[in-house]
Amino acid sequence: MNKKKISSIIFGIIPIVLFFLFWELFAEYEILNPALFSKPTIIFPKLFDKFPELIHHLSATIYRLLVSFFIALGIGIAIGMLMGYKKIIYRSLNPLITTVMTVPGIAMAPIFILWFGFGDPTIITIGIIVAFFPIVYNVAMGVRSVDKRLVQAANIMGGKRKNIFLNVYLPHSVSYIVIGIKLGLARCWRTIVAVEFIAATSYGLGYMIWDAYEYLNFSVVYGGIIIMAILFFTIEKTAIRQLEKRTIERWGLVHENE
Amino acid sequence: MKMNKELIKNKLLALIQFLIPIIVVIVLWEIIVYFELIIQLPAPSAIYNKFVYLMFEKKILTNHIYGSFYRLILGYILAIILGIFVGSIISLKKIISDMLTPMLSLLIAIPTIAWVPVLLITLGLGDKTVIAAVFLGGFFAITYSTMHGIRMVDKNLINAAKISGAKKTSMFISIFLPGSLVSLIPGLRLAIGYSWRALVGAEMLAAMVKWGVGKMIYTSRFWNDIEAMFLGLVIIGIGGLLLDQLLMRYIERVTVERWGMISEG
Amino acid sequence: MKKEAKIKVEGLKKVFEGENKVTALEDVNMEIYGNEFAVILGPSGCGKSTLLYLMAGFEKPTKGNMYLDGKKIKKPGPDRGFVFQDFALYPWRTVLKNVTFPLELKGLPKVEAQKMANKYIKMVGLDGFENAFPHTLSGGMKQRVGIARALVYEPEVLLMDEPFGSLDAQTRKQMQIELEKIWEKNKKTVVFVTHSVIEAVYLADRVFVMTARPGKIKDIVKVNLIRPRDYTDENFLKVREKVLEILESEVEKSMHQKQEIEKT
To answer: What CATH number corresponds to the domain at position A99?
Structure first.
């Protein structure tokens, strides 16, 4: 098992290494303009140089991400469960949710900047809105999709309303909540970075990149993208994967999800 | 014949049920603003007036909408063509797909908007950047769902073809391609969402772009024109909704749902 | 000395309102005695499952009454156990926790609950699988869990809705034999719904044959054979013939009903 895993990791790294290699060579021999396409050998040392600054920006973005995500999670699960449980709440809220769901977070930024100004309030508010929708949508779907038989079985075994909610609706919803978390978290960080481009004034990953761009500090721009790729890829592969493993995979409820 | 009338009636009923909460919200909104309970919100009537003004008097709204759609279509179609192409090629040999999947996953993790500064650097501040952003938004999703779709093709379909002596290329066309649609078509639906969002974001950041719904919202801020900003949001929301529900859902329904490959409850 | 019926059904009528009004049951009357293995047999669509659901309290009758031990049946409760055709196991609970669930609901302390659960898990032959999750089990095993879960809280009556319908022929036969063995140990009152004549004759003390929709009890066949029964025995086949005859015309009727529905 271990050998296979190690060899597949090495396998996966090869194209990435090759990619940087070619990038370096193309920039070196001016097939690509090195002024525009900074050389990897310049990008990486620069990142190491600016490390403390980098951490500062990173923690700002992560702070915004965590705050908005968990608020959205709480509200989303609460409303989603209500929607799933009571048909009339679903019927009244669902159209509103499906219409607003498609609006990109960054489109809301100018309005919120007008109301709340630049910085955290705007960014976090938009983060909450954008994470909220996938969560509430999936939770509602989860509660609605509970197998009637499971409720009937609980009924005949003497379960009261509270028992049924805790022991049937809640666990069943967990697999949908996990999907909602996955989608909501992704929307959240993507939007936060985007909004930081316009709405952040002193720190944040998005701010760092945009600021670097405006000052023609291109190597930092590329560096920022690389950092994001590694960061968010890692979050997906570790935190989310662990969550999936302990819940939906363990219970054999893997859904073909988006 | 009876079935058709019933169906239309049911669909109409569903549509009305869908619209009622929205209408209720709009009415409440109008009332709240009228009685000045919240001052910063523009009233729906004000937004509508702005719409009429920009559409018919100044006649620039169509420019904005046209600008956006032109870029969306170009970028998205490019994403489809290249996405399916690259996804198929990568899937030809297991070794290649195994090697490239991690890299693809890394690339997908990058928010599309993060590419925009790079695009601004390399492609300039105009149209090309926005189209490229739209392309990138959709490309990764389509490539991934193509690969996933090909990989998920029912082994028995493949075996059945192999036994009847089919050659690799004909198998590809008649089995892998249709089979992969289960993953591909929902992937296309996902991708247009990404592309749409990328469009709006890129328009805001590309300084030389003059027309576009995203741009409209962005510039309206400098004039404190909140009605226009909300109007932009409404257009973007409706646009996204139409694209997803009408276009993509329709395509899903006539292909993979019809063939019983997926069911949407 | 007339035995008092454990379950009494009087004038039961069930109509489903909806796009098409369906009268599933029309004037059903039956008496089931304690410790009896009663089988309700009928063609598909005859309402036999509906009858069982009414007994379980999952649905309410349109007219008529049902009594369990003299008390009117109004809603589901732990005096009855129910085994579903599609198992209805909780995928997020292990085998053990599925079986202890009804005891948890009763408020039994954990240790006691586990002890009882283990007893029934052993009874259905699943010891060793206590910590498995349902999705890892085969169909037959899942249904054993279903049976254990329904028996563990020692209900007065066990209701079974085509419990072996989702299983392959081999497993089905095996399960019939095992169910019979388990039943012989404690002779619970069982109401078992099926459309298989062989299954009915193998398991039942009495077979209640239903008409096609709207369902009524057409006839009751007493199966006097000694247990455990032999599928190939002469007498078994005789009883089977008898039941088949009664059922045959109803099966034809229900098929016509099905075709009618498909035409519209």
So the answer is: 1.10.3720.10
